[in-house]
Amino acid sequence: MSLLAPEAVSRRAAAARRAVVFTGAGISQESGLGTFRDADGLWSRFRPEDLATPEAFARDPERVTSWYIERFEQARRAEPNAGHRAIASWERWFPSLVVVTQNVDRLHHRSGSSDVLELHGTLWTWRCARCGAKRDAAALPEQRPPACVCGGIFRPDVVWFGETLPLAEFDRAAAECRRADLFVVVGTSATVWPAAGLIETAAAGGALIVEVNPEATPLSGAAACVLRGPAGEMLPRWSREIERWRSPA
Ligand code: OAD
Asked: Active site includes 120?
């Protein structure tokens, strides 16, 4: 079997104690969920300013909430793939493993990862834009847009363009990146800030940077190693290599 990653990289990864896995839409692509900026991505068919901003919600709450309810239904029907499962399985190796995700689909939780920071929120809970009441997406009122008893409208608990990231999650993510000795970045174009800045934070802290992506990204050049291919194939294969270094024959 030819090795996927240089030996030195897998050996260093195998000895890591504080690992951060930073993910984007690409990790869920093999679960059937669309990415944003690929040729067939969501932002090639829809304009973010029509759907993913507070202004769009104020202008056309029915369109915006219907779109997010459909995305929630897709996420609910989707199953975690071999890439999500490989990441969850790494908890048996590293004393600390934190998944920092830009995804709102909850597939990391559903694959068994126990420490997940959702930088862009989640589709699975909604809140009233007027009174702040929380509601599970699966229990939203039938009418569109979904109305709260206070007269307000429910919106998804996701972060829209122009909004700030959840402070506690971002601060902890930054702290974990500073301390990480292994930083694996999977399936993100690394173009949306401030999330993308975490890669620089991890690099400045001395972490070994490994990228998993079928395409080149702005950060490929900064990675010690790039696993060029889909996450659902690359991550289980790389896991087997790391396993070898953890239990040398
Ligand atoms: P993008 O759509 O920008 O990037 C997806 C990345 O996944 C690309 O680099 C693809 O090459 C890669 N990819 C595709 N298939 C893959 C596979 N099977 N395995 C691994 N990688 C694969 O998505 P994000 O980087 O997540 O924010 O986008 C970041 C943010 O921009 C999102 O959270 C969302 C979006 O606008 C908001 O809505 C606020």
From this structure: yes
Q: Are 116 and 109 spatial neighbours (Cβ–Cβ below 8 Å)?
A: yes
CA 84 vs CA 17, 108, 233: distances in Å: 20, 6, 11
Question: Please, which pLDDT band fits residue 191 given cuts at 50, 70 and 90?
Answer: confident
Decide yes or no: CATH 3.20.20.370 for domain 1-33+80-120+164-249: no
- Using an 8 Å Cβ cutoff, are 146 and 126 in contact? yes
Residue 196 has pLDDT above 90, yes or no: no
**β strands within 69-214, DSSP E:** 96-101, 116-118, 121-128, 134-136, 154-158, 182-186, 208-212
User: What's the CATH code, domain 35-77+123-158?
Assistant: 3.30.1600.10
Whether 156 lines ligand 1, by a CB cut-off of 6 Å, is no
Distance from CA of residue 180 to its chain's centroid?
A: 18
Q: What is the pTM of this model?
A: 0.97
For 16-34, what is each residue's pLDDT tens digit? 999 999 999 999 999 999 9
Q: Strand, coil or helix: what is 73? A: helix
Domain ranges across the chain: 1-33+80-120+164-249, 35-77+123-158
Amino acid 145: pLDDT = 97
* Cβ of residue 67 lying under 6 Å from some atom of ligand 1: no
